[in-house]
């Protein structure tokens, strides 16, 4: 068994950039994070973290275990909230490195909102090996298509019309031509239902996703408020930055007209890119 040990600070440039980024003020529940395996049940470490919110490990490492990578704290492998080993296939070395970096850069206090890769991988392992859960999530995500951001267009102001044409129109044309489906759009508050054939086809597309793609699709949809932006990201039609710009067309048009609201627009700017970036990184095979 070979181990890759990280001495503090791990990936200093990456760590520094993360520390400089504004932090989302949304509350987080620790039960959604990975825990450390020990001789007792998985919940033991979870309770310990919830009770103390303190860093209780000294070293972070990555170990090779058969055909997978395991991130370790004090040589003990991380586990998901469901108690499963948090193991990554060998083509997910980058993901393992990012998870290790997240835990290494926890200082005296544990900050769950700075563990986006850990929570996303845990979600993939715990939820998307179960077919019933996959089916339920697919149905839930398709509901976002009913109110998809990029299907609601405005005829004014000019800056908004320009941004819609730049970021939304290419995605609508892409999904229609790639999957041979029709999508409804509107310039009012009401959107005609998308054809049943469209919903069926897009459900079939998601049914072919692996657990990593499903986890990325779920996070990207909830973050962007758009099924179609998320689909384009997961299928690598667009980058995380392009997905962020597409999801913020209306916000960016307001910023261009009225300026940026401090501690609101700037915080949201970084949080959206953190969430979409983690989804994009999960899909990497590096």
CATH fold name of the largest domain = ATP12-like fold
The proportion of residues in beta strands is 5-15%
Alpha carbon gyration radius: 20 Å
Distance between the termini: 21 Å
Helix content: 40-55%
* Shape type: globular
Helix and strand content put the structural class at alpha+beta
Biggest pleated-sheet summary? 6 strands, antiparallel
**CATH C-level class of the largest domain:** Mainly Alpha
Average pLDDT, all residues: 84
What is the count of DSSP helices, taking H or I runs of 4+ residues?
Answer: 13
Features:
2 domains; ATP12-like; disordered N terminus; alpha+beta; 52% helix; ATP12-like fold; 286 residues
What does this structure look like?
It holds the Pfam family ATP12. Keywords: Chaperone, Mitochondrion, Transit peptide. Belongs to the ATP12 family. One of its GO terms (cellular component) is mitochondrion. One of its GO terms (biological process) is mitochondrial proton-transporting ATP synthase complex assembly. The chain is globular. It is built from 13 helices and 6 strands. Helix 9 runs antiparallel to helix 13. It has 2 domains: 56-124, ATP12-like; 131-283, Orthogonal Bundle (ATP12-like fold), CATH 1.10.3580. With 286 residues, it is an alpha+beta fold. 35% of the residues are buried. Strands 1, 2, 3, 4, 5 and 6 form a 6-stranded antiparallel beta sheet that branches.
């Amino acid at each position: 068994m070979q181990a890759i040990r990280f001495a503090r600070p791990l990936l200093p440039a990456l760590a520094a950039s993360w520390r400089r980024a504004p932090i989302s003020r949304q509350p987080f529940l620790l039960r959604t994070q990975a825990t450390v395996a020990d001789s007792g049940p998985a919940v033991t470490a979870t309770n310990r973290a919830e009770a103390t919110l303190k860093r209780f490990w000294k070293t972070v490492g990555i170990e090779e275990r058969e055909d997978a990578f395991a991130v370790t704290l004090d040589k003990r492998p991380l586990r998901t909230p469901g108690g499963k080993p948090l193991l990554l296939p060998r083509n997910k070395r980058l993901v393992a490195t990012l998870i290790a970096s997240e835990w290494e850069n926890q200082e005296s206090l544990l900050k769950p909102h700075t563990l986006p890769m850990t929570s996303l991988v845990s979600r993939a392992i715990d939820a998307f090996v179960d077919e019933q859960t996959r089916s339920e999530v697919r149905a839930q995500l398709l509901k976002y298509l009913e109110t998809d951001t990029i299907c609601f267009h405005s005829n004014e102001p000019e800056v908004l019309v320009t941004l819609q044409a730049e970021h939304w129109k290419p995605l609508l044309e892409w999904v229609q031509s790639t999957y041979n489906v029709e999508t409804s759009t509107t310039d009012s508050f009401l959107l005609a239902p998308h054809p049943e054939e469209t919903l069926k086809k897009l459900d079939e597309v998601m049914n072919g996703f692996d657990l990593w793609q499903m986890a990325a699709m779920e996070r990207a949809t909830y973050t962007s408020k758009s099924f179609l932006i998320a689909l384009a990201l997961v299928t690598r039609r667009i980058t995380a930055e392009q997905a962020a710009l597409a999801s913020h067309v209306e916000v960016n048009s307001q910023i261009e007209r009225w300026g940026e609201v401090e501690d609101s627009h700037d915080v949201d700017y970084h949080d959206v890119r953190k969430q979409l970036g983690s989804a994009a990184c999960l899909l990497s095979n590096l």
